Amino acid sequence: MTQTTTQSVLQPGRRSKKRDHNAISPLWNTIFNIVIGLFSFSCIFPFLFVIIISLTDEQTLALEGFRLLPSQFSLAAYKYVFQSSNELLNSFALTLLVTVLGTLISLALVTTYAYALSRRNFEFRGFFSFLAFFTMLFSGGMVPGYIVMTQFLHLQNTIWALIFPLSLSAFSIIVMRTFFQTTVPDEIIESAKIDGAGEFLIFARIVLPISLPGIATIGLFSSLGYWNDWFNALLYYNNPQSTPPLQFLLMQIEKNMDFLTKNAQNLGAFDAAAGLPTETVRMAMVVLATLPIVMAYPFFQRYFVQGLTVGSVKG
């Protein structure tokens, strides 16, 4: 009896010592927070500095250089970008349409393809898995792709020429296949089949709601690809009368500005070239091209983190 009482009295003390030993002290917790805060600030600071430069007067930037707090701010760079081309808002609308429509089409193709590969009873699973993996390593090339898009599909100077080349990613297929295999239990699918549900009903009512983190992750990658794409517009969207996408339009503005500044002597436009906000315009274009994605990212962050960490801890 005495031994049992002694053990019961000593046991809480031992547990409390163990908890105190494993707990992080307030000092180390503060140090970790400071380190993580500095690392986060180092990731955000370059974009903030780009915004500051875009709001700086061009002559002040030439005299003082790149400074965190310039002596004179100006909106001349943004005025030049918006006034130099009346198609900027139309390009914004076109790029937004391509991004939304292309992301939806890409998610539909990737999720259905990956779900079929994740099912063990799919007869052609090995063939289509090899097809996706092979196309991720080896592509057909730019010339065959151009011939297919222009000669066979006749999609040149159409919005579909900006969507179809990026609609099916082999990397996204492999990621979603692994996600389906690790997060969707076979027992749920088998029980749904016993109740009489078909494959499309199981996919729409059971698989997709469970796989929202993975779908959001792939959707974010696809949205970034469509928003930042300019190469497909350079290849397939070369009609001068059509509204170009945003990235391609900004690249054209920069090229025209560089041409004017470099050939000012031959063109006899010293005053016009001297008044162009060259450096600040570049930074303003970076802000205009990046800000919409930066504003949309917080809405996907929760699903994005879940999609990357799912399957890392099992048990």
TrEMBL record:
It is found in: Cell membrane. One of its GO terms (cellular component) is plasma membrane. Residues 92-289 form the ABC transmembrane type-1 domain. It is a multi-pass membrane protein. Keywords: Cell membrane, Membrane, Transmembrane, Transmembrane helix, Transport. One of its GO terms (biological process) is transmembrane transport. The keyword Cell membrane applies. The chain crosses the membrane at residues 27-53, 92-115, 127-147, 159-180, 200-227, 281-300. InterPro entries: MetI-like (IPR000515), MetI-like_sf (IPR035906). Gene3D superfamilies: MetI-like. The keyword Cell membrane applies. Pfam families: BPD_transp_1. Belongs to the binding-protein-dependent transport system permease family. PANTHER family: ABC TRANSPORTER PERMEASE PROTEIN MG189-RELATED-RELATED, POLYGALACTURONAN_RHAMNOGALACTURONAN TRANSPORT SYSTEM PERMEASE PROTEIN YTCP. This is Sugar ABC transporter permease. It comes from Paenibacillus azoreducens. The lineage of its organism: Bacteria, Bacillati, Bacillota, Bacilli, Bacillales.
